[in-house]
Amino acid sequence: MFKQRPVLVIAGALSFTSLPALAAPLAFQATYSVANSGLTVGETQTSLSYQAAGYTFQKITKANGVAALISGDSLTERSVGLKQGDKLQTQQYLYQHKSRRKAKQDQYQFTSATEIKGKLDQTAYTLKVPKNTIDPALIELRLMEDVAANRPLNYSITERGKLKTYQFQRLGKETITTPLGQYACEKVKMTRDNGERQTTLWLAPELDYVAAQIQHNEKGNITEAQLTHYQAKH
């Protein structure tokens, strides 16, 4: 049976790219296969591109196989903003989830460095935020940079009209096998809701810290994504 929520959480944790320390990520394209309970249930395609001083980071996850027949599930996330030195900073964010049963959307823009205005489904909202707050998609590229540069892994993000703090823990090195081969990785994990939700990522230095594997454990229900394609765009 297709589990919608874990697949979408995995989608929100995908799309890592390559970069040297103290440099913005390279433009790239990547694909991940998503499985739940050992069965393939979806695929995520990601891309990062630059236009002058701006960037667009997009992730599209779709159910496939039997899961697609059951749910018709799809999720699009898009982060658009500015490249400021070695950092990317959100200006606009879109979260759009569609299935046969329901549709959800969160869309907002930064009106200043400390304020966002958006619409959650049909409800408008305004939220005051600290400087350097980012969107849930961009956190992935920030994490990529900071693991490579050995910086703290703490982030202020805003989603669903709320301000949240994400903190990742370094778990050391671990070698894993993926459809693209075997990689020695840096392992990091974020735990939420008193341990009931855990997201673990294996970042491969050989791939310039691209995430070779991502696992989400929600109350024992495990969904896993593995990298099946990666191409840096120079």
From TrEMBL:
Source organism, top-level taxon: Bacteria
Keywords, A to Z, come to: Signal
Signal peptide span per the entry?
A: 1-23
Q: What is this protein called?
A: DUF3108 domain-containing protein
